[in-house]
Design a protein that fits this description.
Shape: globular
Distance between the termini: 17 Å
Helix content: 40-55%
Strand content: under 5%
């Protein structure tokens, strides 16, 4: 779903801020986002905080895929 939001395939506002990467770490891709802060577990495990944590750890070659089908296949085989 985050892929669809980022690539405007669904009409959902993007409430996230992209990280400024001067030198991305090996655990983040160049489209990493700032994880929304959470003080409570009920917020920490909602869609955006949970999904951004997972998105930020995806390899660059997966997040830069140009079709949803290719993205899904890469996630399944990863």
């Amino acid at each position: 779903m985050l892929y669809k939001i980022l690539y405007h395939l669904v009409a959902v506002d993007m409430p996230l801020t992209m990280k400024m990467h001067f030198c991305p770490t090996c655990t983040e891709n160049t489209t990493a986002y700032i994880i929304p802060s959470s003080r409570c577990d009920y917020h920490r495990f909602t869609f955006f905080p949970r999904t951004v944590r997972e998105w930020n750890t995806l390899p660059e070659h997966i997040v830069s895929l140009t079709t949803i089908e290719a993205f899904k296949n890469a996630i399944i085989t990863a």
